Amino acid sequence: MEENMEEGQTQKGCFECCIKCLGGIPYASLIATILLYAGVALFCGCGHEALSGTVTILQNYFEVVRGPVDSLDVFTMIDIFKYVIYGVAAAFFVYGILLMVEGFFTTGAIRDLYGDFKITACGRCVSAWFILLTYIFMLAWLGVTAFTSLPVFMYFNIWTICQNTTVIEGANLCLDLRQFGIVTIGEEKKVCTGSEKFFKMCESNELDLTFHLFICALAGAGAAVIAMVHYLMVLSANWAYVKDACRMQKYEDIKSKEEQELHDIHSTRSKERLNAYT
Questions:
Q1: Which sequence ranges form a coiled-coil region, renumbered to this chain (predicted)?
Q2: DSSP 70
Q3: Is there a contact between 119 and 241 (Cβ–Cβ < 8 Å)?
Q4: How far apart are CA 52 and CA 213, in angstroms?
Q5: Is the confidence at residue 116, as pLDDT, over 50?
Q6: 88-105 burial by CB neighbour count: b if 16+ within 10 A, else e?
Q7: Dist. CA 157–CA 161, nearest whole Å
C-alpha cells in the first residue's frame, strides 16, 4: 500500500514537473524559429543547386566559357553567390538559436518575476537590440526575395518560349543572354528556336529542374520574411510584457519598503510606550 502511494506521488511529481517545463517553452518563438530554419534551408539548398544548374545550362547550350581567374564574369558571380549562401545558412542558424534563448529567458523573467530571477536593465537592452536587429534582417530578406524573383522571371521567359515553340509552328524566337545582362554587349550568345541546341535545352531536365529550384528558393526567402515578421511580433510583445513587469516589480519593491518602514515605526512606538509605562 505504501509502495503504491509512493509511486503515485512520484508520478504526480513527474507530471507537475513536465507541465511546468512545457509551460516555460516560448511556443511563439519556437514556431518562428522552425519557420526561419525551413525558409533558410529551402532558400540555401535550392538556390545552391539552381545556381549549379545555371552553370551547366550556360556551358552546354549557350557555350559561355569561363574567363580568367582574375576576371569578373557570370561564373565568378555565381561562385560568389554560393559563398554568400553558405554564410547566410550559418549566420541564421546561430541567430535562430539566439532568439530562442532570448525567448526562454524572457518567458522565465515574466513567470518568475517574484522569485529569485530578477529582470535587469541589461536584459531589457538585449531585447531592444534584438528588435532592431530583426527589423534590419527583415528588410534584408525582403531585398533577397526581390533579387531571387529575377532568375525566376528569366527562367519563366525561357520556359514560355519553349512552350510556345511547340504550339506555334515556324516561330522564329531567340534567347539572347545580352538582354539579361549575363554577357557583355560585344558577345553574341544566343540560341534560336530552329537550332538543335534549343530543342535539346527545352527537352532537358536541367531547365525544368533549375526553374523549379529557383521557385522553391523564392518560396524559402518569402518564408524567412514571414519568420522575421513573426519574430518582430514576438519580441515586441515580450518587450511590452517585460516593461510592464519591471514597473510591477518596482511597485512591489516600493510597497514592501513602505510596509517595512511602517512596521519599524510601529515597533519603535510600542517600545516607547512600554518604556514610559515601566
A1: none
A2: T
A3: no
A4: 11
A5: no
A6: bbeebeebbeebbebbeb
A7: 6
Is residue 62 classed as helix, strand or coil in its secondary structure? coil
Largest Cα–Cα distance of the chain, in whole Å? 123
Q: Which of 161, 183, 191 is nearest to 61 (CA)?
A: 191
Percent of the chain with pLDDT over 90: 33
SS3 content of the chain, % helix, strand, coil (to 5): 80, 0, 15
pLDDT tens string 185-220: 777 777 877 778 888 888 888 888 999 999 999 999
Q: How many CB atoms lie within 10 A of CB 166?
A: 10
Determine phi and psi for 192, rounding to 5 degrees: -105, 165
Q: Rounded to 5 degrees, what are φ and ψ at 182?
A: -80, -35
Q: How far is it, in rounded angstroms, from Cα 227 to Cα 99?
A: 12
CA distances from 172 to 30, 99, 192, 201, 249 (A): 54, 55, 7, 16, 76
Query: pLDDT per residue over 135-184, tens digit each?
Result: 999 999 999 999 999 999 989 988 888 877 755 566 677 777 777 777 77
DSSP single-letter state for residue 198: H
Cα distance between residue 108 and residue 89, in whole Å: 29
Rounded Cα distance between 158 and 164, Å, is: 10
CB burial readout 210-241, b (16+ within 10 A) else e: bbebbbbbbbbbbbbbebbbbbbebbeebbeb
Residue 161: closest CA among 152, 170, 151, 171: 171
For residue 18 the three cell numbers come to: 513536465
What 3-state DSSP class applies to 66? coil
Residue with cell 518602514: 261
